[in-house]
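Forgive a beginner's question, but might I ask you for the amino acids of a protein and the tokens describing how it folds?
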Amino acid sequence: MALDLRKFFQATNPSKTLTVEDEQDRLYYIDFSSVRGGQIIEEIRDNIAFFSPEEPTCQLFTGHIGCGKSTELRRLEAELKQQGFHVVYFESSEDLEMGDVDVGDILLAIARRVSESLGSLQVLLEEPKGLKSLLQGAAKLLQTELELSGEASLPGIGTIKRSTEGDFSAEMGVGFAQVNASKEGISFVAPGIGKITAKAKNSPEFRSKLREYLGPRTASLIEIINQELLEPAKTQLKKLDKAGLVVIVDNLDRVENRPTTWGRPQHEYLFVDRGEQLNQLNCHAIYTMPLALMFSNDLNRLTSRFATDPHVLPMVPVRFSDGRECTEGMALLRQMILARAFPRQSPEERLDRISEIFDTPETLDRLCQISGGHVRGLLRTLNDCIKKQRQFPITKETLELAIKKQCDRMSKAIDDEEWELLRQVRDNKRVSGNANYDVLVRSMFVYEYRDEEESWFEVNPLLVESKYFE
């Protein structure tokens, strides 16, 4: 059967995160751990399931944006579930404004996602009186909004209306929790916090007012979440023969690297200054963090706050630091592309069908090399070729046009000083210091690689193609 161009285009969508629990996605998945310097996901899993199944743990996970962290976290989720854990995975960018995040926002998002997940299992918990009281206190802070409109939607509590006596009342039907009475207590289906986080995400003024109230009460919020949600949840999960509760907070690595109002970079404020509070939840927690922190002068303080070193997911190497081709890395990248076309065939059978996609095997190799092992970048270039040509096989000429277009676009953002920095990376294989990181690594001008013996940096192969790099 001929390969369907549209289906192949959709299967190579660079924005799609593979969910290993899904049968089709599992066929697409390629394990790159053998060329990434170690079994990173296995280490995170074993820290929870083998070494500390009964005690809370907190781990950090980082890497270049687009290198495959979310896919690996979904694999971690599946493996922990196989070992009996109840896992709550969510993308923080769905709940939070990534340009303006505080610890209280993250904690509320976790409370919401955990309670929703427990509700799907019909886990019954007592009514969260302390959390409800805390959020009802926030209602008083929003009196100005209410006085202007006569009504305010206070997500997490409900629609707050002015009563005839001038007080405030909550319509619990759309309010703090949709609850069902039962012999065992209250069914904690959802705390309604989703609406409060949605409003905070979309309204800077609301965020400011909410933080004015919650900021001094962060310690109390953590204690309430632990006592009224996480600890009872773990007890009830045990009755369902679950090994424990794991929360995976993805996309926090996308927190913007901008200064707070008092000048502290936001990502350092969250993970260094407030990291100890993120580490206080009474469950297993995994946070993605910005790769910039690995180059921060505060890295030692960060590891002290979390009592662990961050786990780094590097690029898939296409060459070793001495310039030799990494044959294993290249072989796995080929399979990543071919598996999207021929998911049910063996690796050997796929190699026999390269000509159905590319005019020559060399065109496929050129695509893998120019990606630098950046998974999302490879798929994006391939998608550009598919859209441009609209038929198989993809030719070398089409690929070269896509490469030139991307090279020209990226080169326009680089000044003479930055080109000189890139030449230094080419010669020294190193990047050091916050300023260099922001210019080179965060901008995806430079990629990091690791094996079992060392780590090194290489210039994005797209930029090596530029005439300005000579």
